[in-house]
């Protein structure tokens, strides 16, 4: 039953509706709130996976940059 009063939010993990004013788990890093700790954990893990992907990408990019620098150095020394 709906209590009314407009404080309702939707958890974007499990899709359940909950009252933002009475109960919510706020995760500032994600700028989101959830109805259950479990949902917050799932969201955090998703975010972590994204971050890891980006870190891996960064490492690959750094490697490429280093390789290019070496090539440039070789060209310049000629
Ligand atoms: Zn949820």
Major sheet: order of its strands? 1-2
Poorly predicted spans: none
Q: How much strand content do the residues show? A: 15-25%
Estimated structural class: alpha+beta
Task: Provide the helix percentage.
Answer: 40-55%
Question: How do the helices and strands follow one another from N- to C-terminus?
Answer: EEEEH
- Total number of distinct structural domains: 1
* Count of individual beta strands: 4
Shape: rod-shaped
The DSSP helix count reads 1
Bound molecules: zinc ion
Mean pLDDT across all residues, rounded?
85
Q: N- to C-terminal separation? A: 79 Å
Largest sheet: 2 strands, antiparallel
Radius of gyration: 23 Å
Question: Care to describe what's here?
Answer:
The chain is α+β, with helices and mostly antiparallel strands. It has one domain (8-77). The chain contains one helix and four strands; from the N terminus they run ββββα. The chain has one helix at residues 37-77; strands at residues 8-10, 17-19, 25-27, 32-34. A two-stranded antiparallel sheet has the order 1-2. A two-stranded antiparallel ribbon has the order 3-4. Strand 3 (25-27) and strand 4 (32-34) form a beta hairpin. It is rod-shaped, with a radius of gyration of 23 Å. Bound molecules: zinc ion (ZN). The site of zinc ion (ZN) has 8 residues, from loops. Zinc ion is lined by residues 11, 13-14, 16, 34-36, 39.
